[in-house]
Every structure is written in structure tokens, then in C-alpha cells.
Amino acid sequence: MIGEGLELMVAGMGVVFLFLTLMVLVMSISAGILKRFDKPVEATQTAGAGDPLAEVAVAIAAVQREIQG
User: Fold this and answer.
1) Any idea what DSSP says for residue 61?
2) Are the C-beta atoms of 21 and 14 separated by less than 8 Å?
3) What are the φ/ψ torsions at residue 60 (nearest 5 degrees)?
4) Overall average pLDDT of the 9-37 stretch
5) How far is residue 12's CA from residue 35's CA, in Å, rounded to a whole number?
6) Is residue 35 within 8 Å of 29, Cβ to Cβ?
């Protein structure tokens, strides 16, 4: 009885291990395929970056736009 339980446990753990291995393999392949279609994002630097007055002006403009709809 214990032998059958151990046999079932090993079989179940083997199935789970095979499934997880297959899942990792499929995800790795799909990541490689999707990486080919990925467009690089270019970094843009805004004028006045780091200027506190420019940040305040942007915040005021955003609030005014939100109020006006």
C-alpha cells in the first residue's frame, strides 16, 4: 500500500516537473521570438529638464487643462 502511494507520488512529481520544464522552454522560445519584433524606445530629453520653474509651469498647465476639460 505504501509502495503504491510512493509510486503515485513519484509519477505525479514527474508530471509536474515535465510540465514546468516544458513551460519554461516555451516561454524562453516565445521571448526570443517576440524580442525580434520589439522596437527600441528612444529617450527624449525635454527642454528645461530639472528646472524647478519649468516643472511648476507644467503642473499649472496640467491643472488648467484638467479644469477646462
Assistant:
1) H
2) no
3) -65, -45
4) 96
5) 34
6) no
